[in-house]
Design brief:
With 427 residues, the protein is mostly helical. Helices cover 76% and strands 1% of the residues.
Length: 427
């Protein structure tokens, strides 16, 4: 057995560390959507439904780009696909100032779609890569650990984004919407995305220098895998539906939180302060993922997932039936129980799918399109309720109930070996 045939623990450990930095990057980028919704709603004078199109433009990219991303991954391999993804994200960031100079909200939506297309390719490559960089029995731990750094990005993103996007201009104390104040706020949006583009460019250079270590540790099975193979696996389809529901529920809550906390019946605080508080929602997910990584070495993944989905659903019920600080802190606390859901659904599905990992990953990432659809439904409910966001929490409430069904089914289903044969579920 030669060094080139089987990656050593040292090689996989180094590759795992490099790839984990990517989770931070796309978490940071995705969480900027939350304060951006409040920013464009005021700057472009939009309804909730119209403002939530920022979320839809981002997550529609997952539906459009995920299956092609599997082809790109199969053709380029892991390291080159990751660099191509980061270059696409830089391009999207450069589109934003062009759109704001033309005063076109549609241009901002296009930029978000391009950035998210790069994030899609990044996720299709990074999620299965992390799951494969080590023993199968510890795959839940590795992906949850990497996703904890994703949550670190989503925790920093809303706080920093609110400071940049929701201050000055039309958000200054006593400000009215004029040409001058709108231009000041638009320039703040430019600055935020140009800085993010520079960060992605630096990260691409970092991955380029580490490409040999990533290639040496990456599994070779990705080459030649057909993305369409996943459609023949019932568990791949079930997992994609679960990802659709989970991401839609998580994003619907994140999209509503800034305006929800700002509203009179809840905390009645300024938008900037409300936007910064959203960091507690994503911070709870970060804490939960670090804790969940440890728990998953002792508790069956399906069981822990079921506990989290039930708790998240109960918190949504509290939000719909109360108000004030009780509803505010119940909504923020949902992030703690969201923590392990995405990576655990992902690895539970990979273990049970009869399709190749790259194909299954592509279909699972396609499911992230739920983030484009469920927030729009929540926005329509809020508009129909006269601008009250409280009734809209019924959308994630139903979503978490459905995810409980997935968790129970996964806990009762045996995993598959590499040859497709059934094997006992890991504990």
């Amino acid at each position: 057995m030669t060094d080139t045939q089987v990656p050593t623990t040292q090689k996989t450990g180094a590759a795992f560390a490099y790839v984990t930095t990517l989770f931070f990057a796309w978490g940071f980028a995705t969480s900027l959507i939350d304060p951006l919704i409040a920013a464009v709603r005021r700057v472009f004078d939009l309804s909730y439904t119209e403002a939530f199109f920022t979320t839809s433009a981002w997550f529609i990219a997952y539906g459009v780009a995920s299956i092609p991303a599997s082809y790109v991954l199969a053709r380029l391999g892991y390291s080159r696909a990751i660099i191509a993804a980061l270059a696409t994200m830089v391009l999207g960031c450069l589109i934003v100032p062009v759109a704001t100079m033309m005063d076109q909200y549609a241009g901002v939506l296009l930029a978000l779609f391009v950035i998210a297309s790069g994030v899609t390719l990044l996720q299709v490559a990074a999620n299965p890569l992390v799951a494969e960089l080590g023993a199968r029995k510890s795959s839940h731990f590795r992906l949850n650990f990497s996703q904890a750094f994703n949550s670190l990005g989503t925790t920093i993103g809303p706080w920093l984004g609110s400071h940049v996007l929701l201050t000055g201009g039309v958000f200054a104390a006593g400000a009215v919407v004029t040409v001058a104040t709108r231009n000041e706020s638009l320039r703040s949006i430019d600055a935020g995305f140009l800085a993010m583009g520079a960060f992605f460019a630096l990260l691409a250079a970092f991955i380029f220098t580490a490409r040999k270590k990533i290639n040496a540790a990456a599994p070779a099975a990705v080459a030649g895998a057909s993305p369409l193979a996943a459609f023949g696996s019932p568990w791949a389809l079930f997992g994609a539906l679960a990802i659709f529901i989970y991401v839609g529920s998580e994003v619907a809550i994140g999209s509503m939180l800034t305006n929800f906390l700002n509203s009179e019946g809840i905390l009645n605080i300024p938008l900037e302060e409300a936007g910064k508080m959203v960091a507690f929602y994503w911070g709870g997910a970060m804490i939960g993922r670090f804790a969940g990584s440890a728990l998953l070495t002792r508790v069956p993944a399906g069981v822990l997932l079921a506990v989290c989905t039930v708790c998240a659903g109960l918190l949504c019920a509290v939000v719909t039936q109360t108000g004030g600080t009780t509803a505010a802190y119940a909504a923020l606390s949902i992030g703690l129980f969201n923590s392990i859901m995405f990576p655990t659904i992902f690895t539970l599905t990979l273990e049970r799918s009869s399709a190749p990992a790259a194909a299954t990953s592509g279909l699972l990432v396609f499911g992230i399109i739920g983030g484009a659809i469920l927030p729009l439904i929540a926005g329509q409910i809020a508009d129909a309720a006269g601008g009250s966001l409280t009734p809209a929490f019924v959308v994630p409430l139903v979503g978490y109930a459905a995810l409980t069904v997935f968790a129970i089914a996964a806990a009762r289903t045996r995993v598959r070996n590499g040859d497709g044969a059934a094997a006992p579920a890991p504990h």
